[in-house]
Amino acid sequence: MKKARMSLRIFLFLLTIALALTASLYLQQPGSVHAKETAPNGPITGWQYLALGDSLAFGYQPNNDFTHGYADLLAQRLQNEGLSEYVNMACPGETSTTMNGQCPRPKLRKYPYQGSQLQAAVDYIKQHHNKFSVVTLTIGANDVLPFINPQTCQIDDSSFNSALATLDANLKDVILARLTEAMKVNGLKSGFILVTNYYNPFQNICPKSLPYIETLNQHLANDVQGVGFTVDVFSAFGGEETPNQHICTYTWMCSEYHDIHPTDEGYKVIADAIDPVSLAARK
């Protein structure tokens, strides 16, 4: 009888330990959706921010200040939320075609890489597959803006529409498709893409260009649908209201440079527009 009682006590003791260990292991499991996704060599640990696109993503300003772009500001904010890595591969002058070819101005890049920006981004994401990826993308303006003449306000409709068709094919079928595939880990999505639309720098001097920029933005939204999120920079810069009082403060258009790129204030406005979309996408 004593031996039976002893065996029962030992059994209950071991059972208690086993249950405690099981509970401990359960409580140690990460609670976020992203952490549940598993990479080939282990669980997702931490996250990274990758900025892609043209001169706006690069943070270009005509006064040669390239350190206050929207991506730089966003990275600073995300570091307070646990961001571990920030890489800006954007290339000034980039189009949706050159993004899968060669950077037009490689000497201005903030991050060195060989070949196309798209391939470099895909390689980087795959090489850092244990990190959740936040990707911002600004592309398309350089595809269509050459067909808007700000001196005469003439617009080449045929070339503009042809460029839009090329942009749609490049963005939807190549750029977004490859980035989305690169972010899959064991069949699960381990990141998201935020695509910014565009303000109209010519809005005040060439009001009839407004519907063309709105058409560009609609195409971007259609291309991104289902695979990413659109950030409405157009509305953040004042939207359709013409004359648009923000053009002179958010861009360099009214300065001695007469340049279409954002000022420090303009880049902050873009970062502010991205913030809530990024937060919603991470929930």
From TrEMBL:
Transcription as a keyword of this entry, yes or no, is: no
A single GO molecular-function term is: hydrolase activity, acting on ester bonds
Alphabetically list the UniProt keywords: Signal
Against SUPFAM superfamilies, the record matches this protein to: SGNH hydrolase
Signal is among the record's keywords: yes
Annotated signal sequence is 1-35
Recorded hits in CDD domains, A to Z, give: SGNH_hydrolase
Q: What is this protein called?
A: Uncharacterized protein
